[in-house]
């Protein structure tokens, strides 16, 4: 394998405290040097002038649908989408069919990830058997399996039972695992189709009040205090949840939180079309919520961006609103949305997309620092490039993106995973890098 | 004229007035009988009903037939829908048959709007979920117009389960558009969420409202609301918000009693109150046909005047 020399890019690497124009030399699967001027006779020299060179992005919240719904996505197609989005690691949620609630399935998903070979795929284990919220899944088996699961979530479902959630938190501590709960109080949200508010009232769709999320987050924060667990709050969607997290962090809680690109910019008003492409859980909220989420991402109350990439087939999505499933794809548009909408400087941008999620999930090979000897997991992007997504050419097997026609800013040029180009000049290399 | 009627928002005050005026000229004012016209001969209208509603379907069917249109009835039960055919598939099947107009009733809010994106036929919403029922609002306005010359300043109270009512949503929009003042009356559990954004008065005190209004519009209370915990019991509802003859006596002499049907006599309205002379509930049913004729006529009939069609 030839050396790769990333020439003249702006290296933004928050973990190393670095933001400077420099050359980056990659040898085999590792970073071999970073310096203002590196020359090499035989390296594959990549002109990165005007581009940002950063640690590869890490997604804590990805639905890859395999096993079970390979018509919507596979680990391979999802990995391609991830690579195109600048990701070098994704956490695959457990709500597959069968559910990833045992060592066999998480090992299978991890193996699919290795076979695709485009990003590190870290399976998330279910908290409860079959996501049923009744009894704990064998978290220990998953943690000690070859998949080495360190992240548990029943995502898609909320663990409603407080005693069970407490036990899950206590148990997860054994493995120093993070635990995330899709926060939606079941009775308050029952039958809910969208955010409860002015728009649901007009549209005649049953609403899900913000409080359905906030009650569970408040409960889980209390349980994290009780158990000392490492709680991660997924897809924060309301201003009230932001306030809860801010207060808990101020009190010293060891918790983390994520926000999706879509919750950073889309509001419930889009649902006036009744187009289920806008149906997502948690639901799109109000402008005031969007502003609170942006502020929280900026000030670090929310640690990171996670896509909640949730592919669904056209047949499943093109239905009546109340019959359609929740979810949007997001891996290929995340950077474009965050650059365009979140108002982050480059250091914060890379921190929220890469460094922080890698730290939360405990991935030493991702998120930087890109020092000599570090694994070469790198993304090179143009933070100013304006573009629009063409649903027809996306790598994900599904087409349920709400961002068609929207001006995005920030485009991935190259993604390097383990020293190899997975994406070069914006195209998947098919292992030819 | 508009291409689709999915919501009252598709209309403006002039459009509503035109429909009401056309309905009046289609009905024989003297006898309130509706005559038959050849206007839509050769045109095909499909009643696509995913939710059973004999009244509304029959009303549309009669309206279409009195304009000489061909009518197909497509009900969801016993059809390919039960075998899993999607709304989009069904829409495309109907489209391929060269239908001119689809009248759709669906349990899902927004289904008619979605349907309208997939077909070239005109689409009329005959009731979607808890969203809207615009032709009910038109016939309600027509019925009010028979008694009051102007909607400006007309005071209308809508009593009952507004939260789950597509009729109420359409009526409120239509009445507000024409300058009427609307008050919603009932327990807070049955008021819509964020009702303050509707621009209406809200109260739980029916007896304070009744003496001040021109129309009391009583909504149907369904047993399932009690089962879902919105109400302690139907008898308590009836005692606190039901329109009985004692409460009806609080109304002004010329005030109207209306109801979209079918009534639960003894729950939201007593048998005596429903049969008072000021009750126009049966007129509403008759007016539904003329109003729907007017709508079909204006949407599908082109530029012919009613008089020209009548003599054709
Ligand atoms: Zn979730």
Which key phrases capture this entry?
heterodimer, A: alpha/beta, TIM Barrel, 12 helices, B: alpha/beta, Rossmann fold, 2 domains, five-stranded parallel beta sheet, globular, disordered C terminus
Kindly report the CATH topology of the largest domain in chain A.
TIM Barrel
Extended strand count of chain B = 11
CATH architecture of the largest domain in chain B: 3-Layer(aba) Sandwich
Tally of strands of chain A? 19
CATH domain topology of the largest domain in chain B: Rossmann fold
- The first-to-last residue Cα distance of chain A is 9 Å
Whole-number mean pLDDT of chain A? 97
Ligands, ions, cofactors: zinc ion
**Which superfamily, in CATH terms, is the homologous superfamily of the largest domain in chain A?**
Metal-dependent hydrolases
- Judging from the principal axes of the Cα atoms, what is the shape of chain A? globular
Uncertain runs of chain A: none
Structural domain tally of chain A? 2
Q: How far apart, in Å, are the first and last alpha carbons of chain B? A: 22 Å
Question: Judging by the overall fold, what is the CATH architecture of the largest domain in chain A?
Answer: Alpha-Beta Barrel
Number of helices of chain B: 13
Rg over CA atoms of chain B: 19 Å
Assembly state (oligomeric)? heterodimer
Report the C-alpha radius of gyration of chain A, rounded.
21 Å
Helix content of chain A: 25-40%
Beta-strand portion of chain B reads 15-25%
Largest sheet geometry of chain B: 5 strands, parallel
